[in-house]
Every structure is written in C-alpha cells, then in structure tokens.
Amino acid sequence: MHQARLYSTFSFQSLKQHSDLFEKLMGTSFEALQPELERMRPGWEKLLSRKKVSGRPYRIPDLENHVLALMLYYRARVTYNLIGQWYGVNETTAMRRIKCVEPLVQRMTRLRKDRQLTREDVQAIIDQLDERISQNVVAKPTRRVSAMQSFGRMGQGQAA
C-alpha cells in the first residue's frame, strides 16, 4: 500500500480546467454540475451564517471543493484519511466537512453511493491533473529581477 502524496494543486478550480479529468472523477461535466451548484449556494450560505464564532477559515474552502470531496467519497472507494491527504487536512476535518455538506447535496440532488472508481483510478486522475498543472507552470518560466537590477535599468533609460 503506497502513501498518498499531498497535492497543493488539487482543487475544484484546477480540476474544472481539465474537462476530461473532471468528467472521469465527477461522473458529469462541469457544465451539467454548475446549475446544481448554483441551486445549492443559498443553502451553503445559510450553513456558513450559522457559524457561532468566526474562527479559522476552512481548509476545504468553498462549496465546490466540499462537493468535490463528497463526490470522491461517494464515487470512489477512498477513505476520509485519503481525502484529507489530498486536501492537506486531517481525516476528521475531511469527514466533518463532508458530513456538513452531505444533507444539503442530498436535498438538492438525487445523490447515491455509486462506487465505480477504485482508489487507484482516483489517484491516477489526480496524478494526471498534478502533472498537467506542473507542465503548465514549467512551460511559462518567469524571470525574476531584483529591485537593484530594475533600479539600474531605470537609471540607464533616463541617461539615454
């Protein structure tokens, strides 16, 4: 059994940019899921307003990422521990966040546990996503210029 890697790039926002991986993982297209998310948003806002104390922000940040974590749990044979590792949170936090959004999603959609994906399938999809994102980052190299270098350029431009 191999250890899951921590993915700082794993999120709903990065996944939706890769429609083929999104559909494999979620079982639906982003375009089909978007209206459902918008129908859930008022209920999500109501859940957030029930917080008694404003404390630390959730590490699984928004409705979309909560739904992604829930779909991973429902569509794949993965544990809360593994979902927590993908999001960089404790397994208890992953479980609480999934249990928080689960009733909302069940009220709005016909959600059922349909475990068609194995852990290895999900891990392969997330690896592909991470690889694609890292290739995009490598393909766009940035040149860092120190403050002194840019100051020197400004001085050269004025002398000319």
UniProtKB/TrEMBL annotation:
InterPro entries named among the record's database cross-references: Transposase_HTH_dom
Transposase Helix-turn-helix domain: residues covered: 62-105
Name of this protein: Transposase Helix-turn-helix domain-containing protein
